[in-house]
UniProtKB/TrEMBL annotation:
SUPFAM superfamilies: alpha/beta-Hydrolases
GO MF term set: hydrolase activity
Signal sequence coordinates: 1-25
Domain of life: Bacteria
Record's protein name: Alpha/beta hydrolase
GO cellular component assignments: membrane
Organism: Paenibacillus sp. SYP-B3998
Amino acid sequence: MKHKTLSVLTAATIALSVLIPTASANEIISFASVSNAPAVSNSFSGKIDIGGYSLNVNIKGEIQEDRPTVIFESGYGDDSSVWATIAQQISQYTRTVTYDRAGVGLSDSDPNGGFTSKDAAERLHKLVAALKVDGPLVLVGHSLAGLHMREYQYLYPDDVKGIVFVDVSHEHMEDTLFSEFPVEVRKEIVSEDFRQMNFIEGNIDDALISYSQIDIATQADSLRNVPITVLSGGNHHYPASFPVAPELLEQRWGLLQTDLASMSDESLHVVDPQNGHRLHEQNPQLIIDNVISLLERL
């Protein structure tokens, strides 16, 4: 077993010198049949029809024969712009894809609705097919996207070569973080987060369904042989007014992240003790270094 846990911030800074190709502005590709769609060029910015509605996509970098395409998944309600700096750097090593999920950013809403992890995974699979992405993928995602990526790997295991989790959600986080409260109180605490985001990507009921979907994937031990990196914040600055002591929440969150890392025999767990939940904004170099490191491990 090659499971490692680190409590260091960064590895040596990696020099990046290759210029990034310029993306074409506002390109739109629309088609009725994914199978008949033209392949999208290596440099692209625009909307892709995946069957009656379109997702906003940005592609950078060149396809590398020995390196997977890296696809970035944003946290709840975030558009793809949160990955711009990181994707730009990674695109000097391999092709990168950032996109807005349905109903977020510049993407259309799915007329059929649905905000579970299975819904998100199936839409991404349609997008990958529409883009004619050949070869395996490395998925990189933040927060709730952690569940979406795990569902994608469970549904399409041959597609996924590795995963980088950035302080991601866990299917048992409410039960663990707020264990001293009744179930209904736990749900209400979490529901407030969805309320503050205007339910842009669903509500607590969607999350609960997603947890059930991920439980099935966990029971199948789907991550066991997948190289993964778990990046965790160690200082989330939980407010003192929160119903659980901040230091206790920090400890419990760490246990959830450790549990995720234990799901793979090819895992690396890195804790940033200075930063919290939005590691991709607070410490982007940590994500850049570890994505490159995972690419080199594959």
